[in-house]
Amino acid sequence: MSSNETNVLTVKERILQANQEAAAGLRDYFGLRGTLVTNLISSPGSGKTSLLEATVQRLRDFSVAVLEGDIATERDADRIRALGVDAHQILTGGACHLDARLVQQELGKAGWLGNGRRMDFLFIENVGNLICPTSYDLGEDFKVAVLSVTEGDDKPFKYPAIFSRAVATVITKVDLLPYLQFRVEEVENRILSLNPRARIFHTSAKTGMGMHQWCRFLREAQERKGTMLTASV
Predict the structure, then answer these.
(1) Max intra-chain CA distance, the chain
(2) SS3 of residue 64 by DSSP
């Protein structure tokens, strides 16, 4: 290995180590508050924001906040704020993923750190990319892969890292299935071969199909985290 290659690896290791330290701090902070943090990862155009819009409207009895990651514009955060939900945009300026320090900085800017405010759910919509965001821990409780039926059914094996690590995969836009060649059963088998314990949800933000099951999963996860917090006090 050349000295240049060694230097590159050293820099990458330092970046990942710094990210892990920031993520651990965030995880401890949200653990003490009983906040369930979900990191949504997908290709551009999968329907993450539409899924979030439909989700937060079904979680009105909880305190919900959203962080939106994008290279440019505040359009996604504007869509969530229009629903009366506290949302902040993180603009990466070209970077293809969020990292824990960016999340930490934005939480500080938003006044969400150390203010004693109740926050049951924090949804982080990562930059649209199935590769880079997978390696970066944001202090979340779990990652969720979002896969649209319009993307084709070969994504799990083409991008195995995210589908191996995601606790759940949400298949979106299922109302379009009659018009597409998307083999649902094969996709499910591929996901489960990568992660046998993965939960899989079929949803349509447009029709509401599958949203009850998806939101029940989130409610139960938040309830478990709240129970753990109560038990530790």
Answers:
(1) 57
(2) strand
Which residues 6+ apart lie within 8 Å of 158 measured at CB?
none
Asked if 27 and 144 count as a contact pair (C-beta separation under 8 A), the reply is: no
Helix or strand (DSSP H, E) at 184: helix 184-194
Angle at 169 between CA 81 and CA 33, to 5 degrees: 55
Whole-model pTM?
0.92
Which domain CATH number covers 171?
A: 3.40.50.300
Q: What is the pLDDT of residues 139-158, one digit of tens each?
A: 999 999 999 999 999 999 99
The total domain count for the chain is 1
Report the DSSP beta bridge partners of residue 202.
171
CA distance 49 to 75: 10
Q: Provide the residue range defining the domain that includes 93.
A: 3-232
CA gap 112, 6 in Å, rounded: 39
